[in-house]
Design a protein that fits this description.
Helices cover about 40% and strands about 5% of the residues. The chain is mostly helical. The longest helix is centred in the N-terminal third of the chain and has 22 residues.
C-alpha cells in the first residue's frame, strides 16, 4: 500500500496497479520530462539491474556468483548494443576486473620504480559522490582530501570561505601538488570576513595556484 508523501519515482506496472486503486484527487502523476528522461530512466534501470544482480547472486553458489552476474550484465549490454552504437564493445571481460589507475608514459613515478598500483587513493569512491558525516568509523574528510590531492593533476575548489584551522591540515599536500606542476584554482569569498587572511596568504605562495 502506498504511503502518503512526496515521490519522484518512475511508474512501472506494479506501481501503476497500485495507483489505479487511488482516486485522481489523491495522486499527482505527470509525464517524464523529455530533457531529463535519459537521467531519470538510467537511474531507474540502475536500481532494477542492481536488484536483478543480487537475485542472481543469491541463486548461485559462492564460486559461481560473480560469473553469473557477469553473464547477466553481458545479456543486458547485448540488448543495448542493438539500439546504441553496434561497433562499441561494452561486454565485460570474463576476468571480472576493474580499472583503478593509469600512469602517464613519462610519469616520474615509473623512473622511481613505482607502479600504478602504488598510487595513493581515497577510501571513498572516486566515481560516486560521498557524504561525510564525521562518524568515528567513517573516513575523515581531510584525510580523504589528502589522498585525492596526491592522485590529482588539476584541482578546482569552490568554497564559501577558507579557515586557516582547516587549510593547515592539508596545506603541505597542496604545496607538493603545486611544486610538481599541478594546477590549482580556488574560488572563495570574503563575505562577513569569514575567510582568514592567513589562509589566503598561504595559498598565494603556492606555485601554479590561482585564487579568485
Amino acid at each position: 500500500m502506498l504511503q502518503a508523501g512526496l515521490y519522484e519515482q518512475v511508474v512501472n506496472k506494479k506501481l501503476s496497479e497500485e495507483l489505479g486503486k487511488i482516486s485522481e484527487a489523491r495522486k499527482y502523476v505527470k509525464p517524464i520530462d523529455k530533457a531529463e528522461a535519459s537521467k531519470i530512466l538510467a537511474q531507474y534501470l540502475a536500481e532494477a539491474v542492481e536488484k536483478a544482480l543480487n537475485v542472481v547472486a543469491e541463486k548461485n553458489k559462492d564460486e559461481e556468483k560473480l560469473k553469473a552476474q557477469i553473464e547477466l550484465s553481458n545479456q543486458i549490454i547485448a540488448l543495448l548494443k542493438n539500439s546504441a552504437d553496434k561497433s562499441s564493445s561494452l561486454e565485460i571481460e570474463s576476468k571480472a576486473e576493474q580499472l583503478l589507475a593509469v600512469l602517464k608514459e613519462n610519469d616520474p613515478k615509473l623512473a622511481a620504480g613505482k607502479k600504478a598500483k602504488d598510487l595513493i587513493r581515497p577510501e571513498t569512491s572516486v566515481a560516486q559522490s560521498s557524504l561525510f558525516t564525521g562518524a568515528l568509523h567513517e573516513p575523515q574528510m581531510f584525510s580523504e582530501l589528502k589522498k585525492e590531492i596526491a592522485s590529482a593533476d588539476k584541482i578546482d575548489i569552490l568554497v564559501s570561505f577558507i579557515k586557516w584551522s582547516g587549510l593547515r591540515l592539508f596545506i603541505d599536500e597542496l604545496k607538493e601538488f603545486c611544486d610538481h606542476g599541478g594546477e590549482l584554482r580556488i574560488i572563495t569569498t570574503s563575505y562577513m570576513g569569514a575567510t582568514d587572511v592567513k589562509a589566503i596568504e598561504e595559498l598565494q605562495t603556492l606555485t601554479n595556484a590561482k585564487i579568485f
